[in-house]
Amino acid sequence: MTAPHDGAVTPGATRAEPRYCDRCGEPAATGTHDGCARARALEPPRYCPACRRRLVVQVVPTGWTAHCAEHGASIG
Ligand SMILES: [Zn+2]
Ligand SMILES: [Zn+2]
Q1: Which protein family is named in the record (predicted)?
Q2: DSSP assignment, residue 37?
Q3: Cα of 31 to ligand 1 centre, how many Å?
């Protein structure tokens, strides 16, 4: 992997590249996650894409919320 900018990492960036598949928890760059992506259109995530912790998922009337103990909540 070559980065277009060297050392230009923004601290506290809220939109990090997902490192793990949020459905199966495997590294996002490993294998194919087409099935996961299809399932994720219907289901909430199970793993944090940043740290691979199991998410605490709550189903709410409007959909769901998923909460990572490390990274906080993501909605929708
Ligand atoms: Zn996957
Ligand atoms: Zn996390």
Answers
A1: Belongs to the BsaP family.
A2: H
A3: 8
